[in-house]
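My main concern about presentation is that the manuscript never shows what a single data entry looks like. Each protein is reduced to its one-letter sequence and a matching series of backbone shape codes. For the editor and my fellow referees, an illustration may be useful. For illustration, here is how one protein appears when written out as sequence plus structure tokens:
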Amino acid sequence: MVKKDLIKQFGLVGKNIDYSFSRSYFSSKFENEKKVNHRYVNYDLHNINQFKELITKKPIPKGLNVTIPYKKEVIPFLDNLSKEAETIKAVNTIVWDANGKTIGHNTDHTGFEKSLYEKIEKKPKKALILGTGGASGAIEFVLNKMDCAFRHVSRNPKENQFSYDQLSKKHLDKVDLIVNTTPLGTFPDTKQAPPIPYKYINSKHFLFDLIYNPKETRFLKEGRLRGAKTSNGYKMLVYQAEKSWKLWNQ
């Protein structure tokens, strides 16, 4: 039995996160590495205002991950941001520095970049990013690094963004990468998918879905059936989690 004051507690901040990849991943990691005083828990918040209590109530976490829908909303509660998180405007990892200050980081971009490079044969030249939420900024960050031109697709498009009903064969013919950053298709609502015109997908396209449960979303299945290469978000999650772990232990 480990004494409470010796426990190093980590966790995930989100909403409706019983499915959590992070909790199962880190719990297994701690068990495999015999870190008997480490714990990873879910902090399922009804609203982001509960975050302040979370980081002041004992046991105070040693590090946190952040997921939907709080990657942007958590920023005002933090003391500082890394350069990447400031650029991306979203946080998925929180670190406490030596002075007890909270620093928001983004490791999603690391996970996406590494997992994408493992799958593609050549750099994409043009892309569509489906969604404009907290995860989309990390994709944008990586595509900018790759010199890949992109446009966002949104239900509520802003300037220089497409709405879903605007997409046509002309638009899909111009791109070689389509990334789904929306939660559409996540278990248990597996029949859902972003409403793009799938009939124009073909073997020149690569479809990347940030969702990992189910392994093949309807978005990916529609692409595969038309000859497109596909990838789910599992490897991205593993790589971003490992980067989080390094940040917590630096």
The longest strand covers residues 8-14. The mean pLDDT is 94. DSSP finds eight helices and twelve strands in the chain. The two ends are 27 Å apart (CA to CA).
